[in-house]
Amino acid sequence: MDLGMVGLGRMGANMAERLVRGGHRVTGYDPGAAAREQAAARGIAPAASLQELVAALPAPRAVWLMVPAGAPVDATLEALLPLLSPGDTVIDGGNSNYKDTQRRAARLAEHGLHSVDSGTSGGIWGLKEGYSLMIGGEDAAVERLRPIFETLAPAPERGWGRVGPSGAGHYTKMVHNGIEYGLMQAYAEGFAILGRKAEFGLDLEQIAQIWRHGSVVRSWLLDLSAEALAKNPRLDGIAPYVEDSGEGRWTVAEAIDLDVSAPVITASLMERLRSREKDSFADKLLAAMRNEFGGHAVRKQGD
Amino acid sequence: MDLGMVGLGRMGANMAERLVRGGHRVTGYDPGAAAREQAAARGIAPAASLQELVAALPAPRAVWLMVPAGAPVDATLEALLPLLSPGDTVIDGGNSNYKDTQRRAARLAEHGLHSVDSGTSGGIWGLKEGYSLMIGGEDAAVERLRPIFETLAPAPERGWGRVGPSGAGHYTKMVHNGIEYGLMQAYAEGFAILGRKAEFGLDLEQIAQIWRHGSVVRSWLLDLSAEALAKNPRLDGIAPYVEDSGEGRWTVAEAIDLDVSAPVITASLMERLRSREKDSFADKLLAAMRNEFGGHAVRKQGD
Amino acid sequence: MDLGMVGLGRMGANMAERLVRGGHRVTGYDPGAAAREQAAARGIAPAASLQELVAALPAPRAVWLMVPAGAPVDATLEALLPLLSPGDTVIDGGNSNYKDTQRRAARLAEHGLHSVDSGTSGGIWGLKEGYSLMIGGEDAAVERLRPIFETLAPAPERGWGRVGPSGAGHYTKMVHNGIEYGLMQAYAEGFAILGRKAEFGLDLEQIAQIWRHGSVVRSWLLDLSAEALAKNPRLDGIAPYVEDSGEGRWTVAEAIDLDVSAPVITASLMERLRSREKDSFADKLLAAMRNEFGGHAVRKQGD
Amino acid sequence: MDLGMVGLGRMGANMAERLVRGGHRVTGYDPGAAAREQAAARGIAPAASLQELVAALPAPRAVWLMVPAGAPVDATLEALLPLLSPGDTVIDGGNSNYKDTQRRAARLAEHGLHSVDSGTSGGIWGLKEGYSLMIGGEDAAVERLRPIFETLAPAPERGWGRVGPSGAGHYTKMVHNGIEYGLMQAYAEGFAILGRKAEFGLDLEQIAQIWRHGSVVRSWLLDLSAEALAKNPRLDGIAPYVEDSGEGRWTVAEAIDLDVSAPVITASLMERLRSREKDSFADKLLAAMRNEFGGHAVRKQGD
Fold first, then answer.
1. Which residue of D has its CA nearest to C260?
2. What is the pLDDT, as a whole number, of residue B49?
């Protein structure tokens, strides 16, 4: 079927290419000319503007947004609103906060537009392996997009599904990412312990490879850890600095709002914050307190 | 090749059967007559005593222990010691503490015996899917057992390996289980958050199934979660009570000994302890303190 | 000086009484007739309505709100707005969220009214020992209230201060309570460990008493713990159920917003949530997973 | 009464001086000549050797050890054993592990010697304010030392007590320190949040001073924090590096041994370990994983 893809960054371009390979006609728009050119080379029909993109699509239209969460989604929606017609559908495939998604769905509904939110997992591997899609929205709107989801997913009947009304897709993706933080941190701690045990001289990549087959901890994140360790066994040159992109924070906030204890997901987020604190005031105060009560020497900055 | 298997419980009998299916001759001993009979029905030659087991094996012998960690391993080793001959090998395939393993290896070496420790993961699925084996011991001793490991593992060249000297196998398995605690807790928290979000009416099994394909959090533990949720979507009748079997505790102790911060593995252990505290003194004291300073009402036991 | 006190619950009535004892004239309003009567018996001039209260105060007026955080504060402010005159000051002495305080201050300013927020600590002991007051607002507005603060505080020059602009008082109180959660949890865990060590038969109250003098952990919360343990050494009959009143949640949200790692304050909040989960889904799923991979028996509900 | 003090470091010399000021006769030994000279200047009779120290004491003797925990205590005890006589008492006032204390008490009992363990809190302030003493040992042995404890404590009847048999004193001190870690971390996190809130420009020392009077979080550690912040408001030049001296680790191990969940004490320990990890392997692996699955840029070491 026909689809407009707005945003031709790494994720958007890959998804569009997977759809083209699957026999769909995809028109793509990105504000960057280079992104449009690269997309064209991958079989995506480039549009020079949102107007062109909308004009290229038969009604009822389906427009997929793959733009950064937050203000860019709102800006794109505001620009699209006057261009679209009742009955068209807008899909937000990014990592929007589910409350924003609910708010936007209400606004789009006022204009007779359908909203679908697709929490999308799979990263840069999705082009080849397919994406896991957690979808929110009205049944009929989701159903109309079935051909798209069946192509994006790893297999037509697997790895995608409508999980609930508008917002439910992004909600599920948010929790997915919260879990992801916990899983990653568990592996990271385990490998750190193994690596510190000098007496055994353990080979972390070998252990990751052993675990990939038959062990209780086998997973895709372990596969990736094995690859990372194969390329760079001691992770030389990589700074111990870990970004977070929002969903972990929202998951913690949501757990607290719901009165659900989530100590491990929360601790995983705290560790990421901690990784970026190079001069922790808390630690300095701890050192100062120890000096006050016990006369314990304080290490000087730079020691 | 020939192998003696001591301990024909769930794990021991399954491993022996996988070896028999793979063409090995396995003689099995268990103190329970019923266990021996069932083993015989699965193609394992039963021995009525350790003497019989040792007598049935050609020298140099290989005897695999699959008995509960701790005192049972020591008792079995003491009973075996007078029966074995220099050049024989004893494999401990259970979840022994690596320090015990190192101590036992030294004692066996005094008698000219070889020691191999095999951290074994795979649970009740290992019979069919193969076991992940993390092996410690001298190179030559491990190499002599290659046919055994190649059959137990998911494939001859995958899922097993010698990771270091005596103790290194159990050490690696210990950390494996520490990671496992963290992974499990991350999923458990995530599904708890999803399940508590009444407004979306999410179907947890459906979400687990979606995630199994293409998502960043796909893993074997997720596959198992999906199965558990398929059987019992709300986990009715299951008590919120979580055992632990030692390796998590040891992992935490080891992290601390090595000065490695491991907040998520540690928090996962704490949660298991917490699940078994039905009348937490700490919580009672918190409630009592709030009453003392703020006059906040204390809930009575049974309310 | 003259002060109007709106809200004659435990905190409001105590604070008003402390002011009366200190020589101030306090007019008090509460929607409950019983509360008004009790206040009258304590030297507080009762007002039957907000109109009466405002009418009883000389301009420029000072009206202190001691009502539950959230909607009640907004409702009270809306009712007061038409009654007050430019130059009057409203003090919010409750546990309002600092963002609400900032919003309200802007609204009051539109009407020429001054706002002061007083984070108030001390609980039911404040009547006798004085309150610790963290104050936000314009300098001049705070300064005009100096006689009030000097009487409410433990001593005229101690235990109170203007910490910043509107909202800063409630912000500081919010963090104060976050710290309080952490302190309480640390003591609770420590006493739980002591109490579980059967071999020593430790007397927890005695230990609390010893620590109160000369130890590094001496504190007011320890004093209160000693009192609680003196009354009820094993805390019999107290349910292990711990409420929270919002500031802990806000502190965690604020830490995350500011990218400050706060693992202990966060864990303390999680423990309170956990104390109220009597049938944790997370724990049930952990038990179910263990059953799936290892065949470990699941405890039945009610066992 | 007469007391021998072995170890004239900061703690030992201060305790000896407090005893001398209280009218006791203290003979002190330290391997360092300078320490002995300084002690002499403070009214402590110096002994040039353990032999001299023992010879200077009337039987039954009381010898207080204030030497570093671990091997130094064992070495000192072995050196003292042949010099002492049945009926003499040895007090270990340091931070020994309670299991070592139990082992040593059994060994001393074989020689007819009494053992007393005194968990000692108060740090460098104890000389002036008195020490909090948690005492283990037989009743009669503790009772004989009553004059010593009454002088060391903040007041004769307060701040000290026999809490149980040998080891119970050090056990109680161990948990005391575990709590201390949690309290310190709670304050440290709270002040870090306050300090990061740029919009309010909060003065941390002022806030600490306000809280010291009337607030729920008032404590001695807060008093010390206020002093540290008064001297150095932004803690300039202090490295964010926090040592630990063992009792926190033991408290965590003990909690786990007793199946008591202690998430906050544990997290506090983890934070100290974390403060000393300047190139965390776990964080590097997290960054590498994010790069593998999402193509997220990795920060280079030194960026």
1. D193
2. 98
In chain B, residues with a C-beta closer than 8 Å to the C-beta of A132 are 210-211, 213-216, 218
Burial B262-280 (b: 16+ CB within 10 A, else e): bbbbbbbbbbbbbbbbeeb
Question: How far is it, in rounded angstroms, from Cα B11 to Cα B6?
Answer: 11
Nearest chain A residue to D272 by CA: give it. Answer: A283
Of A292-296, B271-275, D183-187, which range is least confident? Answer: A292-296
CB within 8 A of A234, min separation 6: which ones? none
Distance CA A21, CA A35 (A): 19
Q: Residue D189 is encoded by which pair of tokens?
A: 């996190």
> What SS3 class is residue C136?
strand
C269 vs A contacts (CB less than 8 Å): 256
| CA dist., res. D14 & res. D5, Å (int) | 11
Q: Which of B259, B266, B276 sits opposite D259 (nearest CB)?
A: B276
Q: Give the distance from residue C259's alpha carbon to the nearest chain A alpha carbon, in angstroms.
A: 6
Query: Best interface-test mutation with C: which of B129, B236, B238 has the largest number of C CBs within 10 A?
Result: B238
Length of chain B: 303
Q: Set out the domains of chain C in order of their start, with CATH numbers.
A: 2-165 (3.40.50.720), 173-278 (1.10.1040.10)
Closest CB to A253 among C253, C260, C280: C253
Q: Could you give the dihedral angle defined by the CA atoms of residues D127, D133, D137 and D143, in that order, rounded to the nearest 10 degrees? A: 70
Q: pLDDT value at position D278?
A: 86
Contact at CB, C189 and B282, closer than 8 angstroms: yes
Contact B259 D273 (CB under 8 A): yes
Cβ of B256 within 8 Å of Cβ of D262? The answer is: no
User: Which among B270, B271, B293 has the least Cβ separation from residue D216?
Assistant: B293
- pLDDT exceeds 90 at position C231: yes
Chain D residues closer than 8 Å to A243 by CB? 290, 296
Sign of the CA dihedral running C111, C117, C123, C129: negative
pTM over 0.95: yes
pLDDT tens for chain A, 303 residues: list them: 999 999 999 999 999 999 999 999 999 999 999 999 999 999 999 999 999 999 999 999 999 999 999 999 999 999 999 999 999 999 999 999 999 999 999 999 999 999 999 999 998 999 999 999 999 999 999 999 999 999 999 999 999 999 999 999 999 999 999 999 999 999 999 999 999 999 999 999 999 999 999 999 999 999 999 999 999 999 999 999 999 989 999 999 999 999 999 999 999 999 999 999 989 999 999 999 999 998 888 999 876
How do beta strands C132-137 and B62-65 pair?
Answer: unpaired
φ and ψ at residue B243, rounded to 5 degrees: -75, 165
